[in-house]
Amino acid sequence: MNIIAYLEPHIENIYEKAVHWRRYLHENPELSFQEAKTSAWIQKKLEDMGCQVQRCTQSNGLIVSIVGALSGPTIALRADMDGLPIQDEKTVAYASKVPNVMHACGHDGHTATLLAVAQFYMQHTDKLKGERRLLFQPAEEVAPGGAAPMIAEGALLGVDVVYGVHLWTPLSYGKVSTRGGNFMSAVDDFYIDIEGLGGHGGMPHDTVDTIVVGSQFVQSLQTIVSRNVNPMNPAVVTVGSFQAGHASNIIAERCGIKGTIRTFDESTRALIHEKLENILTTTCEMYGATYSYNLKKGYPSVINDETEANRVLSVARDVMGTDNVIVAEPIMIAEDFSYYLKEVPGCFMFVGAGNEDCQATYAHHHAKFDIDERAMNNAIRMLVHVAEQYAQ
Question: Which residues are known to be catalytic?
Fold first, then answer.
């Protein structure tokens, strides 16, 4: 009998444990690269199940190998575990106990989901074909991220395919969404300090006004996408912070600008990097200012394998119902699951976690973010069903 037949009779019990685990994690979040207690707690849960756990030496990551009694492929499933530097503003019993840190993106639910999957597989290794490699990854929220170090330590060694789930509140509970090809964008952030010559607001001719220089630069940035990038290649250049001056009658000597670049195509990514610095250089030269420029390259774009994305969509139609499956549009947010997909075929999917009835309507990274916890039930089903469909 197929292992899937053993999932449904036990799913409610598995789900109840996932809720308990998720709420513990929600109360006790840790920031990226600081997840030592979280990792130790996860490891203890896994070892209590009988799992053999490899602790990564370069990070707080954990690699779990569950080997079945039957021959078959090696399938990796991944969850992230880090929180965000945000004060939890929810009035729920499981609100974060850590000041200014919370799980505002669902990573607690991802970890609880994968723990539930681990428990299910450990209970049915006699029916399992091949190996299930479970990756509990730290530091998804902050580049350079936790995926690449785990890969360097053998997370994907011998892996045939990889899948991941993101519980997603913009998508209603009960729905699943993904797409083949470009799914989530690459991300790069830039940090610029412009230095001019400050002075009296009534004597501008004796100054180099960095507010003028910075404003000209920001305006000129808009031409990169509109006049340099092929309109068939989506791209975004956003300035998120502009800081200069502190008084009405003083011309600002310094200006700080921060922004982000989102692309799917690597040639477009390189073009924007080049054009941005060219505009910065020429603008500052034109006004007689100087600058420092730091480009922080982030994650590459998430590119789902077409075959595996079609597999996920097909399984989702069977598991969730055809009306609850959506072929996604590309989205300009980033995820370091992209590094796994650069190594082996796979698919990253959204599982709907939004629901007005339980206040799960706030955007990811919002201080009142929460999920419809029943979404973990669907995430468990999707990961197991997709893995076992591949293993047939």
Answer: 82, 140
